[in-house]
Structure formats: C-alpha cells, structure tokens
C-alpha cells in the first residue's frame, strides 16, 4: 500500500503531493484514497482572490495553482474533517477511512502533555480571575496545532488543582 499523507518537512508542496497521491491511488486502484483526494482537489475552486473590474465592479477570481498555499489547502481539509466528524457524531461512529486519510494531510495536533507543560511554564494564573481567561493567550501561541477543546479541559483541570 502506498503511503499517503503530507507534512511540512517534505520537500514537496501539499498540492503537488495530493496530485502524486491521486495518481498512485488511481494506478493502485485504491478507490477510497482516490475519492478522498479528488474531494479535496474539487474544493480548490473555492479559493478566490478579490479583484476590481475596469467598470469598478468588485468580484473574485479563482486562485491559480501557483497562488494556492499549503495553508489554503489545510484550511479546506480542516473544513472537510469538521463536517465528517459531525456526520460521524450523528451516526454514533468514532472514525472512518475518509477521516483517517484526510488527517494524514493535516499538521499533527499537539498532545495534552506538551500543551500542559507550556501552560505551566508560561501562564501566570495570578493575572486572571479564572484560569479559562488564559485560553486566548494559549490558543494564540499554539494556533491551529492545538485542539481548543483539549486546551479548555487542561485549563479546567489546572483550575481544580
């Protein structure tokens, strides 16, 4: 089986990696991977740039392939993951092959130990009335590599101590 997925250490851009993986999925007759990667690629026309026409009317145009960034594609994948998690929640299921494949193309989320260690070293809870007020500062530091609900539970656990 071909190893699908992408991370920032790879020397290939995410869009190029998706295309390579799509080709290998098609050649290997891996229908789940093929369909998942096609779904991601089919979302690319939603990436637009605002422009102003000569008449002064404002509109948008699709980004060219060289204008699409890894972050643009990660945002698309993140939206697909979110909608799949909602569907799985309604079906009372935990995971699906689609979700697992999508997550291989996203940056790895930090685990609770790393987040808790950083909070312990960098957050002074004396400045806040409630530990939950530190949430903004923590999320600003970690950005999209930390799960907000995980940070919230860590802060509430630290509040209980």
Describe what you observe in this structure.
The protein is 54% helix and 6% strand. It is mainly α. The chain folds into 2 domains: 14-103, no CATH class; 112-160. A two-stranded antiparallel sheet has the order 1-2. Helix 1 (14-27) packs antiparallel against helix 2 (31-42), helix 2 packs across helix 4 and helix 3 packs antiparallel against helix 4 (97-103). It starts with 13 loop residues before the first helix and ends with a helix. The mean pLDDT is 88.
What's the β-strand tally? 2
- The averaged pLDDT comes out at 88
Biggest sheet: strand arrangement: 1-2
Radius of gyration: 20 Å
Helical amount: 40-55%
Distance between the termini: 47 Å
Structural class: mainly alpha
Main β-sheet description: 2 strands, antiparallel
Q: Summarize this, please?
A:
By secondary structure, the protein is mainly alpha-helical. The protein is built from seven helices and two strands; from the N terminus they run ααββααααα.
Q: What is this structure's SSE topology?
A:
Elements: H1 14-27, H2 31-42, E1 48-52, E2 58-62, H3 70-91, H4 97-103, H5 112-122, H6 135-142, H7 148-160
Helix pairs in contact: 1-2, 2-4, 3-4
Keywords summarizing the entry:
single chain; 161 residues; mainly alpha; 2 domains; two-stranded antiparallel sheet; globular
